[in-house]
Amino acid sequence: METSLNKLNLSIIITAKDRDDPKLKDLQRSIAFQSYPRERYETLIITQGDSESAKAIGLKQARGGVVGIFASDNYLNDPDFISKCMRPFRDNRVVGTYPLRYHYDKRDNILNRYFALMGGNDPLARFLGKNDKGSYLVEMSFRDDNYVVGHLLRVPTLGDNGFFIRRDILLRADIDHYYHIDVCQDLFNKGYNTYAIVNTSIWHRTGGNIIKFFYKRYKYADKFLHNRRWHMITRDDLWGVKMFVIATLSLLTLTESVMGYRKINDLAWFLHPLICLLTLITYGLLYLRHLKDYAFSYNSSV
């Protein structure tokens, strides 16, 4: 089941709006300090298209056997991040790899700290077990090689923020209608469901102003609502959605805040009830705006 990594060159794809973005420059510097051999990878910065079509453009240009997909607001704190994420590809069963967590730093702004602690910026996805990163609420054990290989039972929000995948397999997805989670759903439907979770973290500097964040999230979700292959909410998730609504409106979400604060003393945990409420309002407004689209189907994306 082993193959030589000497044949697995890497193409790093970074989507960005502006090549002069300071966060992009920071990401490039963090990549330059990686322990992974420089001659083994290329870096492609894609500014054409929107944030999703840019990934497809980069994929078509890539020459490596593996592609690593990053957003311009990512940062690699671990100098061995790339090496760790590439190591599981020695196993031919592994389709892709991704880091266990988002990097947590107490010096970061409070919204970023909350997203890192919870394992993502969408509490509904976490509530349904579809986050692509783990919460600091939950411990996970690893072997000496620092990764765990497993089979997905459903597709979480994979495909970005330090996601690595074999290029020849990703090309079998519908890349002409690219959305990072959808292409993973395409592959899942074809039987490609073996991934490695790697014991490392990536900094995702996405937060800042809460109102601006949810405004951008509403616009982003509204733009990509139609013609999706992956759906956060399916018929099997309806009970979970009801429980999320009840927990949010009754402030039961404070329980997780208290549990988290006991593990890591950071007041960012107590944003949880507010973020859950704003998420509920955001998706509720989207639902009302597109009510006709939901009228005859439970298999709807939010």
How would you explain this protein's 3D organization?
The chain has 302 residues and is of the alpha/beta class. The protein folds into two domains: 200 residues, Spore Coat Polysaccharide Biosynthesis Protein SpsA, Chain A (Alpha-Beta Complex), CATH 3.90.550.10; 82 residues, no CATH class. It is built from twelve helices and eight strands. Strands 1, 2, 3, 4, 5, 6, 7 and 8 form an eight-stranded mixed sheet that branches. α8 packs parallel to α11 and α9 crosses α11. It is globular, with a radius of gyration of 19 Å. The termini are far apart. The C terminus is likely disordered.
Task: Estimate the global geometry from the Cα principal axes.
Answer: globular
Low-confidence stretches: 294-302
List the helices and strands in order: EHEHEEHEHHEEHHEHHHHH
Oligomer description:
single chain
Main features:
single chain, alpha/beta, Spore Coat Polysaccharide Biosynthesis Protein SpsA, Chain A, 2 domains, 37% helix, globular, disordered C terminus
Brief summary:
With 302 residues, the protein is α/β, with parallel strands linked by helices. 37% of the residues lie in helices and 16% in strands.
Which SSEs are present, and which pair or pack?
Layout: E1 10-15, H1 22-32, E2 41-46, H2 53-61, E3 66-71, E4 74-75, H3 81-86, E5 96-102, H4 110-118, H5 123-127, E6 147-151, E7 163-166, H6 167-170, H7 180-189, E8 194-204, H8 210-223, H9 238-249, H10 254-263, H11 272-289, H12 291-294
Parallel strand pairs: 1-2, 1-3, 5-8
Antiparallel strand pairs: 3-7, 4-8, 5-7, 6-8
Helix pairs in contact: 8-11, 9-11
